[in-house]
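User: Is it possible to get a 3D structure for a protein together with its bound compound? The compound here is 2-acetamido-2-deoxy-beta-D-glucopyranose. I've pasted both below.
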Amino acid sequence: MARLNKTVILALLVASSSVFLLFQLYYYRHYISKHGIYPSSNEHWQLETDAQLQVVKMFLGLMSRYNVPVFLIDTAALGNLSQVPPKEYRSGQRHCSFLCTRREFTTFAVFAKFWKHDTSLPRVAAEHGLELLEVRGNDPRLVGLDNLSGTTIPLHLLFSSKGHVVHLVIFYERSGNYLWHGPLRLKSSIDRKLIPFQKLDFGRHAGAFDRPELLLSSVDGLDVWIPKNTSRFLTEYSHARFVECRYRDARTFYQLYPEDTSPEATDFRMKARSLLSVASQTLTGLGIPFWLSSGTCLGWFRQCSLISYSKDVDLGIWIKDYKPDIIHAFEKTGLPLKHKFGKVEDSLELSFQGFDVKVDFFFFYEEGDIVWNGGTQAKSGKKFKYVFPRFSLCWTELMELKVRVPCETLDYVEANYGQNWNIPVKSWDWKSSPSNVQENGAWPVREWSEVIRVY
Ligand SMILES: *[C@@H]1O[C@H](CO)[C@@H](O)[C@H](O)[C@H]1NC(C)=O
Ligand SMILES: *[C@@H]1O[C@H](CO)[C@@H](O)[C@H](O)[C@H]1NC(C)=O
Ligand SMILES: *[C@@H]1O[C@H](CO)[C@@H](O)[C@H](O)[C@H]1NC(C)=O
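Assistant: Yes, that's possible. Here is the predicted structure of the complex:
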């Protein structure tokens, strides 16, 4: 009897749990067909953000285990943080206000000098529930005219779990005293399927940044280093794209046209470089972006250097960035104004006298599909116009200086110098040689005293 009772109870138990299971299954199916996988979009979001926060937590745990200081550079999370004063970072309205961005990834950075290669990392990451993918690329710091080989270095690390990726970008210190990160190129199609690489904030292009000041902060209950001035970092991010000089082509160029190593040429390059450095510091201090233009741009593009027989340094500036303080600021650094042509509304051009070498600022005007800068012949009052296709600006390095160039450099150079820009031309007339020069009338004589000033 007792035995029978036990059997009956067991059977009953099995039956009831099967019924429960069946019920669960039915309930679940019913829900899926009616509401999608998750009961409601609110809860759906909750689950996703929980996963995002969890993966970030696991990643930060792993990094602290290896003593690797990482900092947050995720543009959406920093965007969230920039909306509130730092004392409110800790306590958002939800338990994950700032780090949960509803994106499939969260981005952090590390300075290369703190990144130690440790063979145990992939295994320990896996123990933390994170799958690790390392993306390597050429080390641009070793590549130059005298050495094209380079070696590969780690550029990006991708830690993934639960459909979420933590993207760790390695920032390298480069000789122009700036930070550089490489492009992210996934080799295998499997990786490309796993990683939402086209959506990632960093890696579509290489980028250049100033070293940010960091702040240790409690964000959504986690201790996280963040750029102290989040909006400054985000502004920098929006124009951080970096292009490398074309060393391989430059070397081919020098095989055809060996570099002039005479004392005069070397002297010019040294002086022009220091003038460029002073101009760059002064304009950056004024908050005025500039780019290498005309012959200086051609020198960078064609030969990764300054053209020794050009007589000056040429820089481009958007007219909307013009500030009258420029003149005073340059005079203060010991570079007097040599001439001023045109006016702010039309064809402005400034020239400052350096040590033997002068620096010319060409102001660019935007007009529909094109941009142009003007030229003025002092003795005749004739005006000229140089027309270029529109372009955006990229960082690059020239003689260990971080400077900008038009990203679409080939179009810019071709507009200015024609298809044969790769052949040196030593006798150059600014009024007739450029491919894109147009005559543009003349200044009325009554305006000469304003628009033609030679000092
Ligand atoms: C944070 O960013 C995400 C995505 O940009 C947004 O959906 C969310 O509302 C933001 N949170 C706060 C607190 O601003
Ligand atoms: C060129 O680069 C390779 C790889 O980094 C390095 O081993 C070699 O020493 C370099 N050669 C010169 C001449 O700098
Ligand atoms: C942050 O940087 C911007 C420049 O991008 C500056 O205008 C602002 O004053 C800075 N904010 C603080 C709090 O320093």
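The mean pLDDT is 88. Residues 112 and 172 are 5 Å apart (CA to CA).
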